[in-house]
Amino acid sequence: MISPPTQRSRTAQLCLSSGRRGFTLVEVLIVVVIIGILASILVPRYTDSREEAAKSSLTMSVAVIKSQVDLRFHTTGSWPATIEADWFAGNHLPKNIEDDFDLPEIEVVSVAGKIDPDEKVIDGDAAGAFWYNAANGIVRARVQSRASEGETLVYYNDVNKASATDLGNYELPDAS
After folding, report:
1. What share of the chain is helix, strand, coil (3-state, %, to 5)?
2. Do 155 and 128 meet the contact criterion of CB atoms below 8 Å apart?
3. Distance CA 27, CA 33 (A)
4. In angstroms, rounded to a whole number, what is the distance separating the alpha carbons of residues 167 and 163?
5. What pTM was computed for the model?
6. Of 49, 96, 118, 135, most Cβ neighbours within 10 A?
7. Inter-CA distances, 102 with 34, 95, 139, 146, Å
8. How many CA atoms lie within 13 A of 33 on its CB side?
């Protein structure tokens, strides 16, 4: 007695009888075009979101350091001469996520009236990832170069809630 064909064998028979053995070139191209369109929509949004998250993180780091400096000022009546790691959770200053050079955490100066560092772009020669002026309690984060000097300046000002008009040490980022 011959058993009736199973569902799987019926499907196989239909595919073989119709002559179809795979996808046509047109079908593959349509799928590739659809994936390309979706990628062109989603990738810029992901990149923008990542940039915004990095900017928010750096802005928050500046705010946390500034709040500790302000607390010391309101407690003692004068700006602290330096910023101590033990003021922060885990005995570590907040990280400048743009520091790819393993710089010292903070450069401390004491210059009356100075509100921004001369060098605002973080590079291997910067004296610190953050800048603090003990004469007036101002804290700034140095930032990485962006595509243009204007974009870098806007980013620096956004992160630091500043109004600097020049970067001091801006260089075009490497294309590598």
Report:
1. 45, 10, 45
2. no
3. 10
4. 11
5. 0.73
6. 96
7. 43, 11, 19, 19
8. 6
